[in-house]
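Subgroup meeting minutes
Present: P.N., E.W., G.H.
Scribe: E.W.

1. P.N. recapped why we're keeping a running log of single-chain structure predictions: easier to compare across weeks, and new members can see raw inputs and outputs side by side.
2. G.H. added today's entry (169 aa).
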Amino acid sequence: MSSSDDLIKSIRNGELDKVRALLNAGVPVDIDGSHGQPGLPIAMACFLGHVAIVKALVQHGAKVNLADNSISTSPLSMALRGNKRDVVRLLIELGVKVPESMQGSLNAEELALLRQREKLTPNVETRGRSGSSAIEEIDMVGCYGTDTGTLEADVMRMAREMAAKKKLR
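Output recorded in log:
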């Protein structure tokens, strides 16, 4: 049995420690499915509802966004098909792009989380030398698991300040 097969088997069985060990040993996180679509491990973990395994896969480079998240094998589609609401919420927190056509599949809590995330990440023009400060992008995958309370407070403060500036215009 290949190491990729071991990874798939461990995901299917919900064996987080084995998944981590295999990923740390260098097993690729992007294994193609039977139709040639990449991301079989994360799609399977999303469908089965293994939140901790999804987190581990993302930490090792698995992508939550595909070119088209509405296709049936995307992590979001798989979580919705499996009715794994905890995974859907996690994917939204991780920045999955929810196509308009799929927003009707989200429950009220998930839609609120999506709207909150959209409010906190507005389209900001960077003016550089004109005196306005640029907003630093934060790699949430890279800092996953850290205490982000202070960061969240800073983001909320910044969002309030930006809303106040918009009202003054």
